[in-house]
């Protein structure tokens, strides 16, 4: 599985696009006719396999959408939330914020429970909002809030939403495929993700796994033709084809990526490798004096935020450039209150890459004449 990258390809310690295997890349070397039976069969098997991860009662369908993850979030909210509906958006970072922006564009009513940069929303807080606002029809939750790396307490929130008879939509963009979530234990109407995160495909489409009865009631909700998931689903059901040009090569790569996901042990296998990456990374970084933003309880195996070193020689751009010269691409922080950076644990990363990054960190701190990663020095 651990295939060497060519020297020019950097190691991406990012939340996606991520490093993909050579075989996933090779799967794009063939052309496909979008209406052809072979490609229709590929779409069908992709959808069936994705649904099988969350449901085996026949109640869910998969609707793929062209574009990046945000297109799918926008399509799902626009399709499932009726014009007269009202959302409660649970925010603790940039992707929760983005959902409010999407709702603003669409003209849907909403309220927020905003926990700042990284505190998790808790069941009692959600219950209090739902208790006093009967107009709320949908609750929107980000599974792993990639801007801090926090893993939000999905099950706890889902139980409250179900108790109050409202509908839950989960943006699991950066977690689905590595963190188990199943309709038999968590009640939700839709879960959203994309090709280029934990399934380790290349970027080009997203997908929503939607409760069929919720989608069936959504025929005239959408604000946009190309983002109408009801119409996309209907067309897929009737013809086996995507409406409008599908990203054929991306789908082909994704079929290969799904195969490799299975070979690695499915969601449990991915979770195990990403968790190992995260633990190795956090232990190594702490040895160098770096501090994580979050307590261990809330760290996800997807991405980890570290405070920047407090030393006066530190500049993120120089740190980034020096690590890049060692062939490692890191990710800037997204906190409003403190200087930070992020290191992703997903994609084709193994012990060798994590250890290589840690060695590069030592050299870079040395080159910057910073004694350690301590944010308080
Ligand atoms: C939780 C979450 N939601 C939404 C998105 C947006 O996806 P994209 O950048 O592919 O539009 C991301 C991207 O990392 C994400 O992590």
Search tags:
Aspartate Aminotransferase, domain 2; binds pyridoxal-5'-phosphate; Aspartate Aminotransferase, domain 1; 7-stranded mixed β-sheet; 377 residues; alpha/beta; 2 domains
Summary, kept brief:
It is built from twelve helices and 14 strands.
Which structural class best describes the helix and strand composition?
alpha/beta
Number of strands: 14
Task: Give me the CATH architecture of the largest domain, please.
Answer: 3-Layer(aba) Sandwich
The SSE order reads: EHHEHEHEHEEEHEEEHHHHEHEEEH
> Can you list the strand order of the major beta sheet?
2-10-9-8-5-3-4
Summarize the amount of helix as a percent range.
Answer: 25-40%
Structurally, how many domains make up the residues?
Answer: 2
